[in-house]
Every structure is written in structure tokens, then in C-alpha cells.
UniProtKB/TrEMBL annotation:
UniProt keyword list: DNA-binding, Transcription, Transcription regulation
Annotated protein name in UniProt: Helix-turn-helix domain-containing protein
Organism: Streptomyces siamensis
Gene3D superfamilies linked: 3.30.450.40, Winged helix-like DNA-binding domain superfamily/Winged helix DNA-binding domain (1.10.10.10)
Keyword field contains Cytoplasm: no
Sequence ranges assigned to domain HTH iclR-type in this UniProt record: 6-67
The organism's place on the tree of life at top rank: Bacteria
Ranges for domain IclR-ED: 68-213
Length: 213
């Protein structure tokens, strides 16, 4: 801790992180032990967080993350979308295909930003808010590839006809962005993805990741 930081705020944030990492909640005693502070301090922290609906306690006294955290989380999407739009616009215009930023939402892939090219005669209609399983479509598969990657950095993922007949997709995962799991990709009406598209999508994903850091 430095003179410019707040010890109480730091402890409150640590409480939220500890609760977010467990499915079964934590007791005051467990939190006290993990934080290295006495139970009275934990009670005060929980009471404050409960007032803001960031923490709730069940009948057994176990503390869990509250619904207020979800409300805060919803505000992340507009910020991420705004940061990603320049790279998505450049990608859509360069490739001549619909570009998108997709984030994980539970067990699904959720398109949070979509940019269509301005100069093509036709392109795939792909809308923000579109959802699909993570294991179908290039966007979701790229995210799964990043989860499974070890030391070697994942590249890009190509698919055809998994979400829409006649459409092909290419996507690359966002890497190195704390708290954000997603991918950047394009979808086009084609039997296969041109060779240069994959590396271009990787570059766009890197640009978006840099904008979010």
C-alpha cells in the first residue's frame, strides 16, 4: 500500500475478488483468514458492499457476489465496443466483409460490436446482440482455442456454414486483456476464406487488445 491508495477500498475489492472465485460463497471467518484481518473489519466491509448490492449473504451467513456486480458488468460492453470500433471499421473496409467483436457471456458467444463494409454490393447481415454456442462459429471457436493454448500463442480459426449456410468466418482471440475474453473476426458469403484474411484478423485482434489495455 502507498500513501495514495485506500486500504479500505483495497480490502473491499479483495473481498469481491475472493467471492468471485468461489461458487459456494465464503463465511466471515474464511474471509477474515484470507484477508488477514479481524472479523469486525470483515463485517464492516460486507455491510458496506451489501448496501450497494455488490454482496449478498444467504441464510447460512455465507457471503456471495451480489446482483449489483452484474449491473456494473453491463456497462463494460459499451466501453469495449467504443474502443474496438476503429479497428473493426478498418478490418471491414480492408477485407470487404462484416467485422465483429465477440465476447463470452456465460456459455455463449455474444456479438457486442459489428461493422459492415461500405463499398461492397452485398455482405452478411450480422447484428450486435447475436448469440451462439461457443463451440460453433469462428468467433466462439477462436475463444476456445485461446483457452486451450499452452505456451504457443493461438492464431486464427476458420469455419464454413456453421452458423449460416453459405457463409464463412475467420476469427482470432483477444489476448492479454485482463477481465475480457473474446475474439475479433469477419463473416463473408464465400465457400472459403481468402488466404490473407486470417493474418489480417489476427492483426485486428491485436489492435483491439492494445486499445483495451
Amino acid at each position: 500500500m502507498t500513501a495514495e491508495t485506500s486500504q479500505t477500498l483495497d480490502r473491499g475489492l479483495r473481498v469481491l475478488k475472493l467471492l468471485a472465485d468461489t461458487d459456494h460463497g465464503l463465511t466471515v471467518t474464511e474471509l477474515s483468514n484470507k484477508l488477514g484481518v479481524n472479523r469486525t473489519v470483515v463485517y464492516r466491509l460486507l455491510a458496506t458492499l451489501e448496501q450497494h448490492a455488490l454482496v449478498r449473504r444467504d441464510l447460512g451467513g455465507r457471503a456471495r457476489v451480489g446482483l449489483g456486480v452484474l449491473r456494473l458488468g453491463r456497462q463494460v460492453h459499451p466501453l469495449v465496443r467504443e474502443a474496438a470500433l476503429p479497428a473493426l471499421r478498418a478490418l471491414a473496409e480492408d477485407i470487404g466483409a462484416t467485422a465483429h467483436l465477440t465476447l463470452v457471456d456465460g456459455t455463449e458467444a455474444l456479438a457486442v460490436a459489428v461493422v459492415e463494409p461500405t463499398w461492397t454490393d452485398y455482405h452478411v447481415a450480422y447484428r450486435a446482440g447475436f448469440r451462439h454456442p461457443l463451440d460453433r462459429g469462428a468467433a466462439g471457436r477462436a475463444i476456445l482455442s485461446a483457452r486451450q493454448a499452452s505456451a504457443e500463442e493461438p492464431g486464427y480459426t476458420l469455419t464454413h456454414g456453421e452458423l449460416e449456410a453459405g457463409a464463412s468466418g475467420a476469427a482470432a482471440p483477444l489476448l492479454g486483456v485482463t477481465g475480457v475474453e473474446g475474439s475479433v473476426g469477419v463473416v463473408m458469403l464465400a465457400d472459403s476464406v481468402p488466404e490473407r484474411v486470417g493474418p489480417r484478423v489476427v492483426d485486428a485482434a491485436r489492435e483491439v487488445a492494445d486499445a483495451l489495455r
